[in-house]
Amino acid sequence: TLSNAASNADVDVANKVLADTTAKNYCKVVGVQWGMSESGPVNNIKSKINAPIWVSETKCGGTMGSTAPAPNDFAYARDTWSYIKGAIANGLTAYNAWNMVLDKGGLGIDDTRLWPQNALLVADGGNVIATPAYYVYRHFSQYVDPGAKVIGSSSGDVVAFKNPDNSLVAVVYSTSANNNYVLSIGGKKLQFNMPVGWATVKVNP
């Protein structure tokens, strides 16, 4: 998986592998971390191989060396939404979390660095707590089926899909509470109360 576009080290590795005919034949999918899911690195990969590009891990958040637990807050969820939306816009076809479950301290199996990280789920004693980022993932994964196609939308805060069964899905983000949010989808105009955050609308054929 390619992780560091800034140093060009990973980009150089990718370029060399994809320039080697023998090595390239073994590449069925290219994995990139969140920092390389932007259009520049992605277009570089696309110019060298016709293969799916997946985000292998999203930004894990937290602060290396901090003794405070990872925040697992709404701001991190908003960042995660932005990265997922950008990856979809750039043609990536899978988006994976880095940490599915961590304890409330946010520490994983790294025994050399103190780095509390965010997770989709937090295990606290006998409880499992869904974080805001969990719901960002769920807005997509619960309603968008394998094989769905991205379709255009007129708003930068909407990501829309057409499922293989022809149902339409719109994942919507609102920066402010809106009691009269209007969404036009599948020939229908829908109006509903929209809190700050996300909503998903699915229209069956």
How are the secondary structure elements laid out?
Elements lengths: L8 H11 L1 H4 L5 E4 L5 H8 L6 E5 L16 H16 L4 E2 L5 E3 L17 E4 L2 E4 L1 H10 L7 E3 L6 E5 L5 E7 L3 E8 L2 E7 L2 E7 L2
Parallel strand pairs: 1-2, 2-3, 4-5
Antiparallel strand pairs: 5-6, 7-8, 8-9, 9-12, 10-11
Helix pairs in contact: 4-5
Distance between the termini: 38 Å
Share of residues in strands:
25-35%
H-E string: HHEHEHEEEEHEEEEEE
Largest sheet: 4 strands, antiparallel
CA-based shape: flat
> Which value, in Å, is the CA radius of gyration?
19 Å
How many helices in DSSP terms?
Answer: 5
Tally the beta strands.
12
The SS-based structural class is alpha/beta
Strand order of the largest sheet: 7-8-9-12
Short description:
The chain is of the alpha/beta class and 205 residues long. It has helices at 9-19, 21-24, 39-46, 74-89, 132-141, and strands spanning 30-33, 53-57, 94-95, 101-103, 121-124, 127-130, 149-151, 158-162, 168-174, 178-185, 188-194, 197-203.
